From TrEMBL:
Domain Glucose-6-phosphate dehydrogenase NAD-binding stretches: 34-63, 64-162
Superkingdom in the source lineage: Eukaryota
Record-level GO BP terms: glucose metabolic process; pentose-phosphate shunt, oxidative branch
PROSITE patterns the UniProt entry points to: G6P_DEHYDROGENASE (PS00069)
Source species of the chain: Gossypium arboreum
Entry keyword annotation includes Mitochondrion: no
UniProt xrefs under InterPro entries: G6P_DH, G6P_DH_AS, G6P_DH_C, G6P_DH_NAD-bd, NAD(P)-bd_dom_sf
Protein name: Glucose-6-phosphate 1-dehydrogenase
Subcellular localization(s) per the UniProt record: Cytoplasm
Gene3D superfamilies named in the record: Dihydrodipicolinate Reductase, domain 2, NAD(P)-binding Rossmann-like Domain
Lineage summary: Eukaryota, Viridiplantae, Streptophyta, Embryophyta, Tracheophyta
Keywords assigned by UniProt, alphabetized: Carbohydrate metabolism, Cytoplasm, Glucose metabolism, NADP, Oxidoreductase
């Protein structure tokens, strides 16, 4: 294996375990993972590759895959499915009462139905507060909250999972992580391709429902929340709910929407679509730690680059004596993807005889630092959590409600055509107004900083 390449690590033998409190205990019953929506785009791109990788690494039993075709609105399909599962369990001599069935609903919300039985529900969880609550109530009639796994795959990304450790296991950050030191926080998602082939789906939702209300908001929770009293999933989720409940109503003047030119050429997109494919939204958290610090959530499709990152920009040094050459402020950047990294942009003396300053970085690039280590796909990790019964990285009902409460008024205004997206060129940075809003919010762009990637 060459330097910097990832590898799959196979476990010695297939073992199955579940989480009870903080302990993992072995389980023996036959495990069936039932993917509803198996012919869909998500299943093809994410669910099956993740299951395959888990299988390759020895986390799933070596059984055949079966495909059962049926309609979601007729009983026969489900009866056939039940027969197939029971047949499979019998063939594995599964003891009565020990079988484990995991239902993964990779389905649009309109199609949601009903040992242990757990269900995984894929986003979008509704379209707004009302529909999400309705969906939660319907699912709640069939399953208890500990059985429901609302999946947000950003919570399965390595550097998102690292946030808790980073914030609460490092003395460095504890005193700095607040309004006294941090000027602004950006949470950014950029994609360099459009809605290609998903225009019909996307147009019903738009970038806020697709990315911001879930993925970026979940990241915000982990960046902004208070320290949980323990690592128990419920205690972590309690803190996430609190921070969501502290977010103030979004102001129209702190929103920039965009739609890339050519988006409406997709035959599945209506000619007069008002759906944003780009949005910058500023959230303000009304609490002791964050009062006055803008949390800038940016997401866009068909832009000039692909990345997801958290950028924490610190305030200027008070009484600065090095005024001659200011390249930018201290920034702590957590690059979620691609090329996972964390780096801290800081001022140092320019090496040499002169006393001048230059911006440099403390760089933790994962590929260099963790050579030969496998970074699992988010879905792999999360599916394994569902089998183990660990809900830490899944969205609880009250969390979901609080998330929709933040965005529903804005989304309704967009749906009613009261706010219009600004056209932007595909392959650009998005609307210039978004960068202007950033500047207004206090973000200071770095100039003249050059990063030289470390060589091995
Ligand atoms: N370990 C690693 O991998 C490291 C990599 N680097 C690399 O060094 C380079 C510079 O790093 P860094 O300074 O952090 O990142 P960038 O230069 O990519 O961007 C810095 C910030 O400036 C914003 N910006 C960029 N162009 C404009 C513009 N025209 N108007 C307004 N705002 C703008 C970006 O917004 P937006 O987010 O919207 O693009 C981003 O918030 C990057 O390529 C980075 O990947 C640096 C250190 C370590
Ligand atoms: O949930 C979604 O995420 C993908 C991006 O996922 P990533 O892990 O590749 O960052 C996005 O393309 C899609 O529109 C959205 O529904």
């Amino acid at each position: 294996m060459g330097p910097g390449e990832w590898c799959l690590q196979k476990r010695d033998s297939f073992k199955s375990e579940t989480l009870v409190g903080n302990e993992t205990v072995p389980e023996i019953g036959c495990l069936s993972i039932i993917v509803l929506g198996a012919s869909g785009d998500l299943a093809k791109k994410k669910t099956f590759p993740a299951l395959f990788h888990l299988y390759c690494q020895g986390f799933l039993p070596p059984n055949e895959i079966k495909y059962v075709s049926g309609s979601y609105d007729a009983a026969e399909g489900f009866q056939m499915l039940d027969k197939e599962i029971s047949k499979h369990e019998t063939s594995k001599n599964s003891l009565e009462g020990s079988s484990r069935r995991l239902f993964y609903l990779a389905l649009p919300p309109s199609l949601i139905l009903g040992g242990w039985t757990r269900i995984v529900v894929e986003k979008p969880f509704g379209r707004d507060l009302g529909s999400a609550e309705e969906l939660s109530s319907q699912i709640g009639e069939l399953f208890d909250e500990p059985q429901i796994y609302r999946i947000d795959h950003y919570l399965g990304k390595e550097l998102v999972q690292n946030l808790l450790v980073l914030r609460f296991a490092n003395r460095f950050f504890l005193p700095l992580w607040n309004r006294d030191n941090i000027d602004n926080v950006q949470i950014v998602f950029r994609e360099d391709f459009g809605t290609e082939g998903r225009g019909g789906y996307f147009d019903e939702y738009g970038i806020i429902r697709d990315i911001i209300q879930n993925h970026l908001l979940q990241v915000l929770c982990l960046v902004a929340m208070e320290k949980p009293v323990s690592l128990k999933p419920e205690r972590i989720r309690d803190e996430k709910v609190k921070v969501l409940q502290s977010v103030l109503p979004i102001k129209d003047e702190e929103v920039v929407l965009g739609q890339y030119e050519g988006y409406r050429d997709d035959p599945t997109v209506p000619d007069h679509s008002n759906t944003p494919t780009f949005a910058t939204v500023i959230l303000r958290i009304h609490n002791e730690r964050w009062e006055g610090v803008p949390f800038i959530l940016k997401a866009g499709k068909a832009l000039n680059s692909r990345k997801a990152e958290i950028r924490v920009q610190f305030k200027d040094v008070p009484g600065d004596i090095f005024k001659c050459k200011k390249q930018g402020r201290n920034e702590f950047v957590i690059r979620l993807q691609p090329s996972e990294a964390m780096y801290m942009k800081l001022m140092v003396k320019q090496p040499g005889l002169e006393m001048s300053t230059v911006q440099s970085e403390l760089d933790l690039s994962y590929r260099q630092r963790y050579q030969g280590v496998t970074i699992p796909e988010a879905y792999e990790r999360l599916i394994l959590d569902t089998i183990r019964g660990d809900q830490q990285h899944f969205v609880r009902r009250d969390e979901l409600k609080a998330a929709w409460e933040i965005f529903t008024p804005l989304l309704h205004r967009i749906d009613n055509g009261e706010m219009k997206p600004i056209p932007y060129q595909a392959g650009s940075r998005g609307p210039a107004e978004a960068d202007e809003l950033l500047e207004k919010a206090g973000y200071v762009q770095t100039h003249g900083y050059i990063w030289i990637p470390p060589t091995l």
